[in-house]
Design brief:
Blueprint lengths: L2 H7 L15 E4 L16 H13 L4 E3 L7 H13 L6 E7 L2 H14 L3 E8 L2 H7 L3 H17 L4 E6 L6 H14 L3 E6 L6 H18 L4 E6 L6 H11 L3 E4 L13 H10 L10 H12 L16 E2 L2 H12 L3 H4 L16 E2 L7 H10 L6 H12 L7 H8 L2
Parallel strand pairs: 1-2, 1-8, 2-3, 3-4, 4-5, 5-6, 6-7, 7-8, 9-10
Helix pairs in contact: 2-3, 2-11, 4-6, 6-7, 7-8, 8-9, 12-14, 15-16
Length: 404
């Protein structure tokens, strides 16, 4: 089948994604922001090192490797991770409050490792946070200026992060970012810390921030950091990219505080499917599995793409179409005839099971795949068992029924 013939088999109603000038970068927050989830554990160092290599293989540009001020264990892990990155393309950043005492240890780690580390200096920006903390806004500006200048003076790249930007007053957002940019920040990060934004709100906010940068005539990158309290983390991140963000933050499986962050795996997958990136994502499933194991939080069976059920079916009509495609010897067709996501693009494959909604095609294919003769009698016996069993049959049950 030619490429044109394949294109004719699927009419795509999706609007082509616009070209991203200068490309898009990714910042993996799994090993810092992701570990704020109350249901996970902080992985041992060897697991973190393994994840860093997978991030690098997936084409992720930067990774937040921790809070230097969180103690000796955090400092040891950060130093080891930074050293591990030396021959890799991925580089490190760390989270610090806009307090010189938080940033000073980063200078020490850079001197020890000889590797660059980006400082992500954060401060709350919303009026509700200011009220709760009894913060004075003029002092916030001073803290921000001093922190950024200290980092720059010590040859550190500084990203200035405003927490809860999506609920902050426009004039204060402008004042904070202007102060940070004039102090030497090379990037600014727009945060939907509480998962408050809608897609329209995200577009409004990022457009506003981009205008601040343009008004200053500054060569400064814009990051987007989103949470999914309303289930909008992924779509908001895609909208932020379209509105002008140049680096996107996310975590493996969307792990993070409360209900979590944007899902890095789904973000990469969607941008690949949209033609925005051309990263090799064959190891994306391994990245999900290793992350889940490292943090001790299994992901749901119906999780998109990488959940157990994503490419598995026991339904007769669906399975029949997939089996017919496989019998044509066309895996391209089999991976698309009943799936909006091609399994082979992510190193996965279609799986046919047998259950109460199955038909003959399911059983015949299942048996043949295991080197068993799919006689009429064997198929009938398996289907008879399947129709009175309120779940998918196990391999033992299927082979047992077929051999009776």
């Amino acid at each position: 089948m030619t490429e044109q013939q394949r294109d004719d088999l699927i009419h795509d109603w999706n609007t082509p994604y616009p070209a991203i000038e200068g490309g898009v970068q990714f910042d993996d927050e799994t090993l810092r922001d992701g570990l704020q989830s109350p249901s996970v554990r902080d992985p041992e160092l060897d697991k973190k090192l393994e994840l860093i290599h997978l991030m690098n293989d997936l084409g992720i540009h930067t990774a937040d490797v921790g809070l230097p001020g969180a103690g000796d264990r955090a400092r040891h892990h950060i130093t080891s991770l930074v050293k591990e990155m030396e021959p890799l393309d991925i580089t490190a950043n760390v989270a610090c409050r806009t307090v010189i005492g938080d940033i000073a240890p980063v200078v020490d780690v850079v001197q020890e490792t000889g590797q660059p580390i980006e400082v992500c200096a954060f401060i709350g920006s919303s009026p509700i946070r200011q009220y709760a903390e009894s913060w004075d806004f003029e002092n916030m500006l001073k803290l921000s200026k001093d922190a950024v200048e200290f980092g720059v003076k010590n040859d550190l790249k500084v990203m200035f992060v405003t927490e809860d930007t999506s609920r902050a007053h426009p004039e204060q957002v402008r004042a904070l970012y202007t102060t940070a940019i004039e102090a030497g920040a090379s990037r600014i990060c727009v945060c939907d810390t509480c998962g408050h934004s809608t897609p329209l709100g995200t577009r409004n906010l990022v457009t506003f921030v981009k205008q601040i940068v343009d008004d200053l005539g500054a060569d400064v990158g814009i990051d987007w950091h989103g949470h999914r309290d309303r289930g909008l983390g992924l779509i908001n991140t895609l909208v932020a990219l379209d509105a002008g963000a140049t680096r996107l933050h996310a975590t493996a499986l969307g792990v993070g505080e409360r209900t979590g962050n944007t899902e890095m795996d789904l973000l990469l997958a969607n941008l690949k499917l949209n033609g925005v990136i051309d990263n090799d994502l064959q190891k994306l499933g391994e990245y999900c599995e290793k992350a889940a194991a490292a943090i001790g939080m299994p992901f749901p069976v119906n999780y998109p793409i990488f959940g157990k059920d994503a490419f598995e079916t026991g339904t007769g009509v669906h399975a029949s179409a997939v089996v017919k495609a496989l019998r044509k010897g066309d895996t391209w067709l089999a991976n698309r005839v009943y799936s909006g996501v091609p399994a082979d693009l992510f190193g996965l494959e279609q799986v046919i099971q047998v259950g109460p909604m199955s038909g003959k095609s399911n059983v015949q294919w299942y048996l043949e795949k295991r080197g068993k003769e799919a006689t009429e009698e064997a198929v009938s016996k398996v289907l008879e068992l399947a129709k009175k069993t309120p779940r998918l049959l196990t391999e033992e049950e299927i082979l047992g029924a077929a051999s009776c």
